Fold each of these.
Amino acid sequence: MRSIKEFLLNIPIAGEAWGQLRSRQLHKDYEKRRERYHELAAGRGLKYTLYKTTELAKDRLYKRGYVPREKKLGEIHTFAFIPRHPLSPSLIPDLHDLGPTTVFDYLEKGVSWGQLSNDDGRLRLQMNNVALDEFRKANATNPIDWVMIYGNGAEVDRNFIETIQSEFGVPVVVLCLDDKQSWEGKKIGNQYSGQVSLAALPDLSWTSSLLTCEWYLCEGGIPIHMPQGFDYRVFYPRGNVLKDIEVSFVGGGYGFRKSVIGYLRKHKMNVQTFGYGWSGNSWIKDQVEIFSRSRINLGMSGIGYSEWLSNIKGRDFEITGTGGGVYLTSFNPDLAKFFEVGKEIICYRSRDELLELIRYYLQHDDEARQISKLGRIRCLREHRFIHRYLCLLRILGIVSNEQKT
């Protein structure tokens, strides 16, 4: 039975009012955090550059006595603290291309993110101690070269990172893909559920947001700005499929997204939605088939209830890497650093522009196909996960600058 809140939010006027309220609160909190860190960074003379990150990382490793062992592809032993749930990015396959990979997945231990986020921190510590035991066993068999973590303060205990660094000296990298909206979070034991409690510890903090590099620096961290990548083994064009979907959107139906789709349908656009939260639809087994069947794949870079507070998304690389229908998403200056807008992807800055671009590219299939083709070429050349990993490992001194995929 639906709650009263769910019932009210399905009434268009009530849903719009609620969305606007949540958007204002999100922007207020974000702007307060942004301005605080900007003032701190300016006062301390902190500025993010890749060169500075490289120097900071090498200096930290040197001071704790770590001497990197240069390895070739196929030889690098990774310890991956990565929960494999349906919405996780495809991080693990390309780790196997680096070499032996030991994966710790707390979901396989019967622990859920919901349990960790609603605990007092004891379950997190217990689960991380199990991860430490598995690290020690793997390291005794074949020395581990680096640790790759995808998680936040609800999942990763500070003690786990600190123990690996102090006992073994092994470099630790932590990845977060949503720093802008999950920086603090709630208090769980002696840590916040977001990234702030971990920010100072990793030898590299991999963030998809250029702005939040400043936040990491202020907390004593060593940030590196890179978007996520894609798994080319999964995301590739499906042959012999009909282009029977004019416009598709794959993703949850929450926040401002329903309003955008409603706007398009109001203007007689035939948009098909796939994901939890959409009326009559649930998550699909083969997203790539949808990407391939669609003439236009729609993206939205907004966060939660904010349509214009943007973040790089996994779909930016998964859809483009698939090379099916052309990818059309809202403009994000961070994303524009990794694609040539108008040539490899298409971007809109308003709902009216979105509508006009859809109408145009539905009438100009040849142009749309060429953009899709060039986007896939760019992804294969630069945006696989192994490209990200090699960048990290070069900074850490584990692979040489000459090492290629």
Note: The chain has three domains: 1-45, 48-228+391-396, 245-382.
Amino acid sequence: MNTIVRSPVVRAVMLVFALCLSLLACSSKDKGTAQDADRQARLEELVQQQKDVQAARDELAGLKDRLTQAEAGSLPEGEEVDLTELSTQIEQQDAQVTTMAEDLNQALVDFINADPPVEGEPINPLVQRAFSLKADEDIALAREYITEGGDYARAIGIYEDILAFDPNNAAAQQGLAEAQDMRYMTEERFAQVQKGMTQAEVEQAIGPANLRNRRQYPQENVAAWYYPKSEAKDAAAVWFRKKDDTWTVYKLDFNAIEANGAEKEEPSA
């Protein structure tokens, strides 16, 4: 067997080479650790950003509740509210929430796209957390589609998209079940509406009507909300008359629109 004899110079060169490899490995590890720390810090910023958005949403909900109480005359005794001023505050807060939510959504998308999941490989825990935050925001958006526009179909689509990625998301499961249950009007639910109710009270009782199913009849000073009962285009209707800047229910008809979409009669004051 031949023995390889290395000179002192060769041994020195190899030692330097090994040292360089070690330094490169350490440098790469340190760089990765620094990147992870930066990503963790950015994620914490996004978590706080979401808390700020939710706080703004809660403030908006409080203003809307106050408006509902004012319209129904159920404010604490002696307390008065300028409905016009309160409505303006609600509009401004609503616009702020929308802007904040859009900024957060874009920031979450950017964070995820900076380290996108690779099929067949485990997802980075930081990215997984960002996905969870994104799902929470999507759920809030789905709820907004319902509360602001009565758009149950669009909300259902959002919930289904979330569950396609995360089948065990309990909030999305619950939201989907509720949206599916509320999408079509039932006679039992419709019976909760009473004459004299304000529009806000009707929304609380049976849910909001889709914006596309709300009609105004200016000449009669009347408005109508139609609630689909099935995919056959039949619908129940709630009619409102405006008095003293407040819309109140004056007429109800569970069978206002037949299955073929024909309206039984025009509302009248």
Note: Helices lie at 8-72, 83-113, 125-149, 152-165, 170-182, 187-190, 199-206.
Amino acid sequence: MSGAAQALSSQQDLVPRLFSNPELIRNVRGQLRRGRMLAAGGICAALCITLGYAHYAGADNAKSGEWAREWLQWMVSIQAITLAIGGGITCVQAISREKELNTFDFQRVTRLTPLELAFGKLFGAPALAYFVFLCFMPAALIAAAVGKARPSFLIAAYVFLILCAITFHAVSLVMSLVIERAASAGAALLLLLMVGYSNVPGLGVMDLGPLSPFYANVLITKSDWGEFWKAPAGLGFEQTSVQFFGTAIPHPLAAAVLFLTFTAWMLLALMRNIKRDPAVYQLFSPAQFLGLILYANTILIGFFGWRRFPSLTAQAVLLVLNVVLMGVLALALLRNRDQLRRGLREMGTKASWWAEATWPAPYLLAGFLLVGPAVNLSTHIMKNAAPPWDLGLAFFRVAFIALWMIRDTLFLQWMNLRRIRRPLPMGMLYLMVFYLCTTIFASILEIHDAAGISALMPTGVLGLDPMGLARDTLGWYTALLTQMVPIAIFVYLQHEKIEELAK
């Protein structure tokens, strides 16, 4: 058989293999036991009948069908809670519980590919949530028929809901992969916060509608396709369409693309780590790290609400969003002592001590070299270079923020190599105390925007305007160069730790 024919045969066999893999079957059998299914089905039937009768009995005019439309909204809301939140919480506990029961190591050494193992958990762990979702479906269809809901809108709403739920499940599995069992309650709370946060239209910064599973409840109420494609207004801003680089696009279509692409990134993290030793987890490789930054900035810049902010404020907001993004991804790149030892053994004599001592600064720097010009040039174009916009000041801000982030990341990396209990949390605690003390000091002396205090914390540079930079040019550039001192110190300290671990 030729290579092309083998590839085609492999692709044709992929889907059947995924749906018949032992991990999926094991999870489905564990979740869908006969007694559990009967109990869940009985509870769902009781809720459907009770809610349907309550809406029918309370209706002023039962023939109008308004009561059925309200009943349908209740059914869709319950399905959203069950599938997105209930299934997400199950996924949060899926891998961490396997680790606690000491069964996860057996799964890692099976012949299943990382994709098959990840797929089995993604659709197997929330199997009961899918079953309950389907139990409410007959009542929802009856309500839709009586309420004369348009079938095409109903189908689109359920597609939106399922894609959104799968995204939350994928995020939950990644959280379950990297946390301990004791932290699963905190991860479940984080999932609930994510669901609530995604329900805010536009998030105040983006020209993007809600990305919450509960938005399916709104889609089924639309009366025509023109309204269906629009996103609702929110947070005091009128928003009738999703804007991507100034071009109006359908909100459900934009949401579906975001769900699919973000799920793909989460699956990449799962497949990369699910069969590895937990001691050497690294969610993304450095190249994938840069790719994820570019992906996220395409979304941030493309959907940014340019009309709501002056030029310098828009750039500052985008920089703050990138600080959060790069901070999270930089934490994912930090190495512990075991990971560093393994890396040094693999490289052998090819290891460059000073190059290793700057880890992960080169990738943060590369990220800012990609993101900084993109943010500045996008702001320059979208705001038509309107005053007080100054391109030189914009690049000065990017350089200041980049050096500050590299400084703090190198400190955390050095802390993570020290032989102490919980080195990374301790390093983050030290940073929090440092910034708290600096903030109190700045408040007492009322020097929030001074160049001197900005050498310690970067908040002042985000409020800097061209006149402020011109008044104290020497002070601000001195504050910028001052960042190099702690960077050099932490590179040296990390170099010493590397030599110690290499012995």
Note: The first strand starts at residue 242 and ends at 244.
